[in-house]
Automatic annotation (TrEMBL):
This is Phosphoribosylglycinamide synthetase. PANTHER family: D-ALANINE--D-ALANINE LIGASE (PTHR23132), D-ALANINE--D-ALANINE LIGASE B (PTHR23132:SF23). Residues 120-322 form the ATP-grasp domain. It comes from Sphingoaurantiacus capsulatus. Belongs to the D-alanine--D-alanine ligase family. Keywords: ATP-binding, Ligase, Nucleotide-binding. It comes from the Bacteria.
Amino acid sequence: MTDSRVRRIPPAVKSRLKVMFLAKHALAGGRLDAEDGSHAIYHHEMLTTLQAIGLDIEPANSYEALWAKPDVDFVVPLLNRGGFQNSEMLAPLLCERHGLPYLGASPIIRGLADDKHLSKLVAKRHDVPTTPWVAYRRGQHISAPGFGWERLVVKPNASSASWGVKVVDSWFEALAHVHDLHAQGHDVIVEPWVPLVDVAVPVIGADGPWMLPPMAYLPDDPGRVRSYEEKRNLVATSADDPLEPVRDEALLERLGAYTAALLKELWPFDYGRFEYRYDPVTGALKFMEVNLSCNLWSKKTISRAAGTLGISHEALVETIVAHSLDRQGIGKPARRLAVAA
């Protein structure tokens, strides 16, 4: 069976397009990094995948590549965690400065999505259930949360890959971690710890937003939070994340409805992951956060969700890039790529 939403960049567009691939480990050759772990492997895989698609790729690994306008037609900016707050917005901002089309989402939408407090406010505005939370901006007065809790999750308000996340049993511990994160330059969000099932809804651009099959994260011990080191393969873990497609029809319907409500505020973008916490006993479903321009590694959620439909990693990436090119008026309407399901 062929899914008509899978797309291909026309050969004529490929032949005239010059693309900058901007990522911290774009020139590292695919070796595991001592600090970023498997993120370096992911960057190399994206580079080689874009080349396999047939694009003329110029790799770069620093923001300086965008200080002056480069001689390219399109930018794939994966450079974040740049060593300063909100660094994920800089490459898109520099592209905007030069009028260069780029993959992902506009800087203002990236900022909204990456700010977990603001994204929860968007969810609340659209009647999407969320866990209770409180945000502590640097310089604000700090008082204990007004909601009930047994354990608390304390983390940077713009954390990625669980960096800086800590689960604590007392307000004394929570306050100490808030102060520590503030001292490192981060705003903080605090919410109750709920050790249940994490569910992600991947969304990519095709003919409008395309919700790929939701995937549930099913670890052996749902009561233990995964560390940054585990997510980046800096410590010994299982080969792949324990992900399974969601099968429950009623849950799928709710996930689709909630994600559609959030898309009203965030669309257009090229790819992202909407994350929820699900209690299979009570049926409670709560929005947690949204990650736009998230990890596209073949071992991670978006690619594995596409794989359940018979869509290869290369076809997925080409579909996402083709949508972005068309969205920004660079190429003609893309042709379809037949994929066996």
